[in-house]
């Protein structure tokens, strides 16, 4: 299943890049507070490269990884000093690094079919092995309660040359999103559809899994001045 194909990637960058941009100052502060003011940061689920670009401005080296070729194409234009790789977040061979980030619920997408949590636990061990001692792993996940009524939720957004309609339903720890994009191409409009599955995680289970992998973890509900959404959990995990 392809997600964030050409049109949705473009719409996401044009209309929804604010999350990465507004989160960046707080994320940089979290890195500095935990001893990472320089060095290599691997961003898993880098999207269109907004956060990677901010990392470069702050003096970090950045490697961005995303499963969407369309996102990687955008990222290479937006942050030419960073390195970008098209790859699955779960299969990418992490290099030795000072920090790993994954913002925007990317790991909830990557492990959507991981009902037991074992695949994510293995992934946490891989991240721990890649980080230097004292390295930082910052990420956020979707959590139960995003749509607590259990009823489908619908919304739409529009911008210059684009529109997007989203229908979401939460069932059995999985959020299903049906996304329809409309993008103006010349005088015509092109319609595309994607369906995304998002695993919903409980904070205590994730913290326990991180501890078993060798991390000390604290929960956060904001990146600096940017508050995370209801039904979203942020985690700052320190390797030891």
Give a description of the structure.
With 240 residues, the chain is an alpha/beta fold. The chain folds into 2 domains: 6-143 and 200-239, Rossmann fold, CATH 3.40.50.150; 153-198, N-terminal domain of TfIIb (Single Sheet). The protein has 7 helices and 13 strands. The strands form 3 sheets. A 7-stranded mixed β-sheet has the order 3-2-1-4-5-13-10, with helices on both faces. It has a 4-stranded antiparallel β-sheet with strand order 6-7-8-9. Strand 11 and strand 12 (226-227) form a beta hairpin. The longest helix is centred in the first third of the chain and has 16 residues, at 18-33. The mean pLDDT is 95.
CATH architecture descriptor name of the largest domain: 3-Layer(aba) Sandwich
How would you sum up the major sheet? 7 strands, mixed
Low-confidence stretches: none
What Rg, in angstroms, do the CA atoms define? 17 Å
Mean pLDDT: 95
**What's the name of the CATH homologous superfamily of the largest domain?**
Vaccinia Virus protein VP39
Helix and strand element order: HHEHEHEEHHEEEEEHEEEE
Total individual domains: 2
Helix content bin: 25-40%
Number of helical elements: 7
What is the CATH T-level topology of the largest domain? Rossmann fold
- Which overall shape is indicated by the principal axes computed on the Cα atoms? globular
The helix-and-strand class reads alpha/beta
Query: What is the name of the CATH class of the largest domain?
Result: Alpha Beta
| Total number of strands | 13
Identify the strand order in the major beta sheet. 3-2-1-4-5-13-10
Distance between the termini: 37 Å
Estimated share of beta-strand residues: 35-45%
């Amino acid at each position: 299943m392809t997600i964030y194909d050409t049109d949705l990637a473009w719409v996401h960058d044009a209309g929804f890049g604010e999350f990465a941009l507004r989160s960046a100052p707080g994320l940089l502060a979290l890195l500095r507070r935990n001893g990472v003011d320089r060095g290599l940061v691997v961003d898993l689920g880098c999207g269109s490269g907004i956060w990677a670009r901010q990392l470069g401005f702050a003096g970090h080296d950045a490697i961005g990884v995303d499963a969407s070729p369309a996102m990687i194409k955008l990222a290479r234009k937006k942050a030419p000093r960073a390195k970008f790789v098209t790859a699955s977040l779960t299969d990418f061979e992490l290099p030795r690094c000072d920090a790993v980030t994954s913002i925007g619920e990317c790991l909830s997408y990557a492990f959507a079919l991981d009902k037991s949590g074992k695949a994510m636990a293995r992934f946490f061990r891989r991240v721990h092995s890649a980080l230097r001692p004292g390295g930082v792993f910052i990420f956020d996940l979707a959590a139960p309660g995003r749509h607590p009524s259990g009823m489908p939720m619908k919304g739409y957004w529009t911008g210059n040359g684009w529109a997007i309609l989203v229908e979401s339903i939460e069932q059995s720890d999985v959020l299903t999103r049906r996304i329809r994009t409309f993008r103006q191409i010349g005088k015509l409009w092109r319609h595309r559809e994607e369906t995304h599955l998002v695993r919903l995680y409980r904070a205590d289970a994730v913290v326990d899994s991180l501890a078993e992998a060798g991390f000390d973890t604290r929960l956060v509900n904001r990146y600096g001045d940017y508050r995370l959404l209801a039904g979203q959990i942020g985690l700052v995990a320190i390797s030891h």
